[in-house]
Amino acid sequence: MMEINNAAGDQVFVSWSGGKDAYLSLLRARDKGLRIACLLSFISSEGRSRSHGLKTEILEQQAEFLGIPLVTEEVAWETYENGFEQAVKRIKKEYCISGGVFGDINLAEHRDWIRKMCGRCDISYNLPLWQEEELKVAEELLARGGRALIVAIRSDLVDQGWLGKVIDKEYLDYCVTTGISPCGEGGEAHSLVVDGPLFNKPLQYRLGKIRQNENRALLEVFPESSGE
Questions:
Q1: Which helix (H) or strand (E) holds 140?
Q2: Which backbone phi and psi does 162 adopt, to 5 degrees?
């Protein structure tokens, strides 16, 4: 079950992909009394999130509407660990954080990496969704009023017609029927949360082209005010 290693009142960051698992982890961390100091996203040199391929501008608008500062760190995959350490040391000083919150659910190698890196940075780690049943995690998001747009899929596993649609009961039924992870733990699908608790208003966005990268299809999402 969930792993919460910080005490109520502690300042923490949330490892931020912009997707449903990070968002639900944020909500659960607040439920436990943790104080969210900032969101931390790792960005490629092209200005996209390493996790979901989202443009930095959409993450910035998301953070603005959540009322939580966004901190970004540019990394390549081969420099990810160094980038993580640099970013955490920076926000430890700036925000006085003593822990991090992560949205991982059941991948043991991810948990091991998080524990190693947080230990290296001398902070606690928190996994609010750890070992939860995936369908129940997705259903909790819907029950709490969260709206998450499907923005990336593995096109060898998921029908491309789901891109741009909001995760709902129909999508969860599709996951159960096809035997894929409702939370995308195998990279089946990634999402962008556009509304829900803590948002002071829904995310304003418009959809662009679908980019194909081998067996991955990624939907461009822009802030509505963007001229791109």
A1: helix 134-143
A2: -80, -20
Q: How far is the C-alpha of 224 from the C-alpha of 208, rounded, in Å?
A: 11
Other beta carbons within 10 Å of 142: 18
Backbone angles phi, psi at 15, to 5 degrees: -70, 115
- Fold classification of 3-127 is Rossmann fold (3.40.50)
Contact 63, 39 (CB under 8 A): yes
Element (H, E) at 28: helix 20-31
Amino acid letter for position 116: K
Judge whether 28 and 53 are in contact, CB under 8 Å: no
* Under 8 Å between Cβ of 24 and 103: yes
- 18-76 pLDDT, tens digit per residue, is 999 999 999 999 999 999 999 999 998 888 887 778 899 999 999 999 999 999 999 98
- Taking only the tens place, the pLDDT of each residue in 151-165 is 999 999 999 999 999
Distance of CA 33 to the CA centre of its chain: 20
**Which residues have a Cβ under 8 Å from the Cβ of 113 and sit 6 or more positions away?**
none
Regarding the domain delimited by 135-223, which CATH topology (the fold level of the hierarchy) does it fall under?
putative n-type atp pyrophosphatase, domain 2 (3.90.1490)
